[in-house]
Amino acid sequence: MTQYLLAIDQGTTSSRAIIFSAQGLPVARAQQEFKQYFPQDGWVEHDGQEIWSSTLQVCRDAIASSGLQPQAIAAIGITNQRETTLVWDAATGTPVYSAIVWQDRRTADYCAGLKSQGHEAMVSARTGLLIDPYFSATKLRWILENVSGARERAERGELRFGTVDSFLLWHLSGGKVHRTDASNASRTLLFNIHTQQWDEELLELFEIPASLLPEVLDCAAEFGHTDAELLGASIPVLGMAGDQQAALIGQACFQPGMVKSTYGTGCFMIQNTGDQPVSSKNRLLTTVGYRLEGKVTYAVEGSIFVAGAAVQWLRDGIKLISHARDSEALAEATGEACGVYLVPAFTGLGAPYWDPKARGAIFGLTRDTGIKEIVTAGLQSVCYQTRDLLEAMRQDGAAAPSALRVDGGMVENNWVMQFLADILGVSVERPEVTETTALGVAYLAGLKLGLYQDLNAIASHWHRQQRFEPRMNDAHRERLYAGWLDAVKRVRSEP
């Protein structure tokens, strides 16, 4: 019997389910957008119940549209928006507060306090991360401190914490399983990436009771089975990874030095560094790339908070375009030298700046500036930010990649891909299957199932659809990039 893999991709703006064949080709998909809430400046929340109901719905829809029997789904993989934090009742699964999204900055002052007390060096040495509101620990502490009775209930063992993967697994298993994988655990600020354990000193620092935490497994492991009533069969969950790590696997970046960049709501560039964690001098993050059979492959990562979200803002916030796809034609009509710079620091700046209090701005406006120039500047901002990350990796001693493998919704835009190659001075490769996040976690589930013998077997399925070569001359490239650096300098809250 042909075996199929169901990938759940629970992202920041939508929940998706994609069914893949054993060859790694999509057979059916379903997607549902859900609401983001912005209760205060710098706060970003989701409704946990909506995350669960939309995820369940897209799984059912994907199975229905595939025409397959639920029994034909041999395994499930879960990938997720990573640092987003949920706390729920251990008996009912009901969240005690909204999901606090990775973009949320409400704990900026608390983080600044910990830094001024001199804790960052210890935290970074153990976790590979910086003390920043982005990561889960300070969000979790905020819930315990600010939701009435939450801390007391946590102390009594009545609550559970998890990133979205754990929350979905808990619900899919009918409340039987509370687990996560090493890649998601490594984004919490509570996990020691060297010992591969929850770290007691970090739990103490952030005032987190250990009873809240999930068990940590490899990325390909037996996480549990779905309750048969939910999807029509009891299906094993065999793969799990945070979305960016899943994309690293989907892009088959298995050799040290290989780099991928994903363009979703944010943009994330990850470089495989092999079995050694590399410590960045340029405020990039050291993280678990993946862990298989107990063996860790590390990675270095740069995170940009706003990529596709800038296009979303142009569409929904200031209504310059009706559809994201309209942006490509406008950029083609404008050309790369539009003279305008849009710095999309809507929720602060991510790597390599890590400035939570920076805010967005548009520079270079003249009387001739119109919609098409501002839209083009929004698209270019994604490419300039990618260059920031690549420069940081270079300064950390990484060799320039021979090519950058890209994925995510934005990579369908040929104009953006060409400008990206031009501003980086590096070839950009777009794969045939651009749903690499979902594909990566399907591969992990298939690896555990035995559909794939090893990582080489997975790599053989990767195929390039198009390669964009740099065409811009060096002087023009540097002039455009210098304008970007000047614009960023102007929005910084601190020099």
Short description, anyone?
With 495 residues, the chain is α+β, with helices and mostly antiparallel strands. Helix content is 36%, strand content 24%. The protein folds into 2 domains: 4-244, Nucleotidyltransferase, domain 5; 252-431 and 463-495, ATPase, nucleotide binding domain (Nucleotidyltransferase, domain 5, 2-Layer Sandwich), CATH 3.30.420.40.
List keywords for this structure.
Nucleotidyltransferase, domain 5; 17 helices; 495 residues
Your description of this structure?
It is a single chain. The chain is an alpha+beta fold and 495 residues long. It is built from 17 helices and 23 strands. The chain folds into two domains: 4-244, Nucleotidyltransferase, domain 5 (2-Layer Sandwich), CATH 3.30.420; 252-431 and 463-495, Nucleotidyltransferase, domain 5, CATH 3.30.420.40. It has helices at residues 48-66, 108-116, 120-127, 136-146, 150-155, 164-172, 182-185, 200-206, 228-231, 243-250, 308-317, 326-334, 371-395, 414-424, 436-449, 455-459, 474-491; strands at residues 4-10, 14-21, 26-33, 45-46, 73-80, 86-89, 99-100, 159-162, 179-181, 191-192, 197-198, 215-217, 220-225, 236-242, 259-263, 267-274, 285-292, 295-304, 341-343, 361-363, 403-407, 427-431, 464-468. The longest helix is centred in the last third of the chain and has 25 residues, at 371-395. It is globular, with a radius of gyration of 21 Å. The relative contact order is 0.13.
